[in-house]
Amino acid sequence: MITAAFALLMLTISLLQPLARRLGLAPSVLLAMVGTLIGIGATYVLYTAETDYFNSIANIFVYPPLDSERILYIFLPLLLFQTSLTLDVRRLFEDWAPVLMMAVVAVFVATGFIGLALYPLAGVPLIACLLLGAIVATTDPVAVVAIFRDIGAPARLGRIVEGESLLNDAAAIVLFVILVGILTGQQSLSYSHAAFAFVQSFVGGVILGGLLARVAVSLLPLMRDLPLAQVTLSVALPYGIYVLSDQFAGVSAVVAVVAAGIVFNLYGPARVQPAHWRFLHAVWEQVSFWAASLIFMLAAILIPRLVAGFNPLDILLLIIVIIAALAARAVVIYGLLPVLSILRAGQAVNNKYKIVMLWGGMRGAVTLTLALSVLENPALSDEISAFVTKLATGFVLFTLLVYGTSLKQLIKLLGLDRLSARDEALRTQYLALSLSDIRQEIETTAKAYHIAPRVAEGVMNEYEDRAAAATAETNMLEELKDKDRVNMGLIALADREQQLVLDLFHSKTLSGRAVSQFLTITGQIGDLTRSDGRSGYKKATRQPLKFSVGFRFAQFLQRRLRINKPLALRLADRFEFLMVYRILGDALETFNEQEIRPLLGDRVADILKETLATRQSETLTAIEALRLQYPDYADALENKFLRMAGVRLEETAYEEARDQMLIGPELHSDLLRDVERVRRACGIRPKLDLGMKTKELVRGHPLFEGLPKEQQKAIMKMMRPQFATPGETLIRAGERGDAAYFIASGAVEVRTASDTVRLGRGDVFGEIALMTGGRRSADVVALGYCHLLSLNAQDFKLLLDKYPDLKAHVAMLSAERLKMNSETMTSETEDPVVPQFKATLEEDGKSADDIVVPKSSPSDEETQVRNDGQMHAEAKPSRQIGSGTSDSPTSSG
């Protein structure tokens, strides 16, 4: 009989879908109506004296074999997880402030308003009134979102309402559990203890769900070609997290499942092929439909049982609940949301959206299930159970029958079902272009199918008339401001870039690790473009070219602890990122010419072209800076990309041959195994050697390469290799000198108040302050990637004292810089370093005026400074240490 009852419910659910569409109702509303009628009918059949023939199946509907706990365990993880999967999480972050306001703050406000309003008349403790408030604070997204999608409401409105519904279930259920614990004596009545329990349960659920979801995401690549296994893992994840959180971890199971769904949604696409991700979504959509419909139907069937004994006082209390809930929602929407706009915490919500959000607070299956759990709790008195269940059920029926049936008309009345002027203009332009292309395709198809011209002409004329009508309306696009049209084009570029990233991942050109980074970047580009227009697009596209906090930390490990591997990995990641970023830029330039130019016109396309050209120029500059320092690695990485492209083309050729029946499935599978072996070999990224070994850097430095090995070894013990990035400030004017730097490769720029000097391989900087005891006299900035040898102040002085020739050599390198400093000083601002340095030289019987520094003559490897500020080839001095002369450029303090 249970199987028959289940089949009957599924049949009813399937038939109600087309009926709801025909009647113009949300499916949830019709499910609630029919479920209530089933419950009433089953109750009548079970207790009527006329017949007992149907008692066995009626008993199943009146007293279902599932209690509230089983209903929540079976259906709630599926509903929460699937809702998280369908959310555009990155776009939702744009409205994080209003969503959290409606999801968390609104729950507490509604609980307080309803509880305090009921308490004077309810005749039950205040905690029981607050418990009812927490139960009815959960909104149901199914009915509302279904209405939004049916009439084409704005996407942002749908995201806010769906995000609110998802997260307020979590907040309300956590609060519900705490209040039930207080009523049953399992929790302390202390408000501070209750607040701590709420935070602990909520935050603990976020952490646990997020961590377990990341583990699950990391397992997806193991099932790369097994979509059914990937779907199975995704189904097991919410159930496992729900049980673990509820039974063992002591945190909110609802919050944990929601957090897991969000993390899985964020990082899952980077680990699953796009076709498999679409398949996963399709399966989840079907499973969620069954779960949402069944839980709603089961809960609705119980409504007659839950409202048994309704009396006039209950009607009055229900009216109070309705008014208090509406007032609480109005206070949050009209009182607190504007505060967020004043504080600039998210985008403002316009008044039309606010009206729909106020009227769209429908309650549904979760509220009914929580009410049922109160009825089934033996620790609660019959008075409290009846009070909570009757009012909660009555409130759900009111919201479904009143809000649910009138929300669609309200949205139409406010005009939110119509496209904006910008979207309408774009629609007509796109329609005109598409219909013209389709007309030409029909003409070609008619000829290919040998259809008579008189037959084809009628269809072609129809499309021609529609294209002409659309063209006549395209003047709306011309009326838009250039700023709006440019923003439309930039948003199209941002959305296209995200698709290109997924295409590269699908073609296996982009690794799973890299695709996560790129999806985050493209999401940020889209967000900033939508909020700030062209300036936001430029800012978002430049941000990835900067050095991240992780890169700086890896650099710190290399500089302070001499740990090179993290920095090498970061540099290799940056190399790969920049190459893919360049590929995306090229594809976007093509997209702009082929798709955006016909749609938005030459003026907009030219502006976008200029914006993309600037982006590409900055990307190429960053690539060249790395290539100059590591040319061999750049060649190896480009070789890898080219080989991967060859593997992709090979795989495509085999698939086309199979589809054309040129080769059989066995031969195709054999060929693919060979392709996979080649792909695995090509997928191994070459290792990047930083070249930061002290021995090689000292021996290759022009100042030290002529020294005996014993002296080189002594110097190696003192030297510390250091890696510098373009634009990094190595020395700041006014600082106390703590080290001198010897340039092994790369270049730096010495910046004084009046002049700049560029130094390259073989030069020294930072030594003047150490020799004189004064402060730094200039800023020194790396022009490109640099390999440096740093020497702290104490070791520097020991080195100069031990090697007089080196001391004289360094002194001569510094003399010209000192002269420049002294010449730019006025009598009022005399540099105190100059006389101190003269005294240092006079100890050796010399003066700064006596020292003559020979001009350097260009060599075959002459230093070249590029216009973009990046670095150059390397020049060697013509004489080595100990000769007393140097052909190197000047050095700096």
Structure description:
The chain is mainly alpha-helical and 893 residues long. It folds into five domains: 2-414, Up-down Bundle (Na+/H+ antiporter like fold); 421-480; 483-623, no CATH class; 630-690; 694-842, Jelly Rolls. The protein has 34 helices and eight strands. It has a four-stranded antiparallel beta sheet. The chain is globular and about 120 Å long.
Rg (C-alpha, Å)? 36 Å
Instruction: State the shape.
Output: globular
Strand proportion, as a percent range, falls in under 5%
Q: Give the helix level as a range of percent.
A: over 70%
CATH class of the largest domain: Mainly Alpha
Number of domains: 5
Number of helices: 34
How far from one another are the termini?
Answer: 92 Å
CATH fold descriptor of the largest domain: Na+/H+ antiporter like fold
The biggest beta sheet, please?
4 strands, antiparallel
Provide mean pLDDT, rounded: 80
Assigned CATH architecture of the largest domain: Up-down Bundle
Topology:
Layout: H1 2-23, H2 27-47, H3 55-62, H4 68-86, H5 89-92, H6 96-122, H7 126-135, H8 141-151, H9 155-183, H10 191-219, H11 227-249, H12 253-267, H13 274-301, H14 303-306, H15 312-342, H16 351-359, H17 365-376, H18 382-414, H19 421-448, H20 453-473, H21 475-479, H22 482-506, H23 512-542, H24 549-561, H25 565-600, H26 602-629, H27 631-659, H28 665-682, H29 694-700, H30 709-718, E1 720-724, E2 729-731, E3 739-745, E4 748-751, E5 756-759, E6 764-765, H31 767-772, E7 779-782, E8 786-792, H32 793-802, H33 804-824, H34 833-842
Antiparallel strand pairs: 1-8, 2-7, 3-6, 3-8, 4-5, 4-7
Helix pairs in contact: 2-3, 2-13, 4-11, 4-12, 4-13, 4-17, 6-7, 6-9, 6-15, 7-9, 7-18, 8-9, 8-18, 9-10, 9-12, 10-11, 10-12, 11-12, 11-13, 13-17, 15-16, 15-18, 17-18, 19-20, 22-23, 22-25, 22-26, 24-25, 25-26, 26-27, 27-28, 29-30, 32-33
